[in-house]
Design brief:
The protein is an alpha/beta fold and 461 residues long. The chain has helices at residues 44-55, 70-81, 115-126, 146-155, 196-204, 223-235, 275-284, 304-310, 346-355, 375-385, 415-427, 446-453; strands spanning 16-17, 23-26, 34-37, 61-64, 85-88, 95-98, 108-110, 129-135, 158-161, 170-175, 186-189, 212-217, 240-244, 250-255, 263-266, 286-290, 314-318, 321-326, 336-338, 360-363, 389-393, 396-400, 408-409, 432-434.
Length: 461
């Protein structure tokens, strides 16, 4: 990315303040068909798992293409607090990881608003000697964590809530090893609110005292994220036996002990974060290409290939990456979809649904009420603020076509609500986005990338 792009509405520097201190970013509207190539930063989910496994590995490691964002900084800082050494090589941007000898207790971990830190690090703290305190942003105080802590208690750790039971802040007191003698080697987890509850236990399992089994009952949301965790473990030599019932009756994963292998690992682009840019092709018309789109992946964002096709796009995957050619706003179709496996894509799907010419029904996403904000309530509220027609369902949203108008859209400190508003702004002049910098949670410099994509005649962002 260069510094010679022409000035246009919607750069981060155009944000204005209000009397209450809120900053508002004028979302740029479409100038017509686009032809852009967007280099999307590394996957947050892959980076979190790769960092964790490198920190408990049997040898030092190097991570190529890791995401540089607030969430990944918090993960690195948390792992360092527990005993790992992590630094960024200036010339390459690679992360260099010195594994911990044994998890270190008696420390404090700041989770910020990162679900991966909130759920992945307590099991590691439970393997330490001493007490670790977990704190976070105010908005994180409503993100559930009880299933992870209940499992740790069953294995012999001791957890204490310092506020509302089941939520931050809390403390984890470990005994140096788990499971303790006499404790069960299998734990049952309700993962209907987050797949991270299962991934959290699997990631620390290689350090435990013998093989352990994590069993999830009922419908597990976001199964691709657990598949990503299993693939990451196996890729570093950890033995994982998975028994997944596609009928959703029960799922279990058994992990053998033994530190993951160290060494080099690469991170693919974040396919979920590619969604708003690909959606822009549908709204504006023209094409958007994402280079280095993997031919095979466990990332939830790979579902864009199917979802965007169903909503009116032409999608092509080849050696140059993934290209989406869009029809423009008048050609966007609504859809009916169960997004239980890919709930993080919902805000962008909802933005396209608001602009579509036919109704949409999105289900299977009740668990989004426990994300950075209650995303279902937030989406319904902001769509209504625009003049749109949205109705909350017990597990989703119904969205119908309606005339839209300019509005100031709230983001609730949620990065995906900010990108939802940016997509809407392409078609609705006068949309302003509250605190667009919340996108730095997973997408550094989003306003610049967004503006660069819209430069007439295309650009490389």
């Amino acid at each position: 990315m260069g510094d010679t792009l022409p000035t246009s509405p919607g750069d981060a520097g155009d944000a204005t303040g209000s009397a209450d201190g809120t900053t508002w970013w004028p979302a740029p509207s479409s100038w017509g068909p686009i032809a852009a190539t967007v280099e999307v930063p590394g996957s947050k989910s892959e980076t979190a798992r790769a960092l964790f496994l490198a920190a408990i590995a049997d040898a030092p490691g190097r991570l190529h293409g890791a995401l540089d964002s607030r969430d990944t900084h918090l993960m690195a800082e948390g792992l360092e607090a527990l005993g790992a050494g992590i630094s960024r090589e200036p010339c390459t941007g690679d992360l260099l990881v010195e594994p911990l000898d044994h998890p270190r207790g008696g420390t404090t971990v700041n989770c910020g608003l990162a679900g991966t830190v909130l759920r992945f690090l307590p099991p590691l703290a439970a393997l330490a000697e001493g007490t670790t305190t977990f704190l976070g942003d105010e908005s994180a105080l409503v993100r559930p964590v009880r299933p992870v802590l209940d499992a740790l208690d069953a294995w012999g750790a001791h957890t204490t809530y310092l506020g509302a039971p089941g939520f931050l802040p809390f403390q984890v007191s470990g005994a140096g090893a788990l499971p303790l003698p006499g404790a069960p080697r299998e734990v049952t987890v309700d993962a209907s609110a987050s797949s991270q509850f299962v991934s959290a236990l699997l990631l620390s399992a290689p350090l435990m005292d013998g093989p352990v089994t994590v069993r999830a009952t009922g419908r597990v949301v976001s199964l691709p994220h657990i598949a990503m965790t299993v693939e990451a473990l196996r890729g570093r030599g950890v033995e994982v036996r998975a028994e997944v019932d596609e009928g959703a009756a029960t799922h279990s994963w058994t992990v053998a002990p033994g530190r993951p292998h160290g060494g080099d690992a690469g991170i693919d682009p974040d396919l979920s974060n590619a969604g708003p840019f690909l959606a822009a092709a549908l709204v504006c018309g023209g094409t958007v290409r994402i280079p280095r789109w993997p031919a095979s992946t466990t990332q939830a964002g790979d579902a864009w290939r199917d979802l965007l096709t169903r909503m009116g796009a032409e999608v092509t995957l080849d050696e140059r990456g993934l290209q989406v050619a869009g029809p423009g706003r008048d050609g966007i179709r609504g859809l009916e979809a169960d997004l239980s496996d890919v709930g993080e894509l919902t805000p962008t799907v909802a933005a396209l649904a608001v602009l579509a010419r036919t109704p949409s029904r999105i289900t299977g996403i009740a668990h989004l009420r426990g994300h950075e904000t209650d995303r279902l309530a937030a989406l319904a509220t902001e769509i209504t603020r625009l003049g749109g027609d949205a109705r909350e369902l017990p597990d989703g949203l119904e969205i119908r076509p309606a005339p839209l108008h300019a509005a100031r859209l709230r983001t609730y400190a949620d990065h995906r609500m900010a990108t939802f508003a940016a997509v809407i702004g392409l078609a609705v002049p006068g949309v302003e986005v509250e605190d667009v910098e919340t996108t730095a949670k997973t997408m550094p410099d989003f306003p610049h990338l967004w503006r660069a994509m819209l430069v007439p005649h295309g650009t490389t962002a």
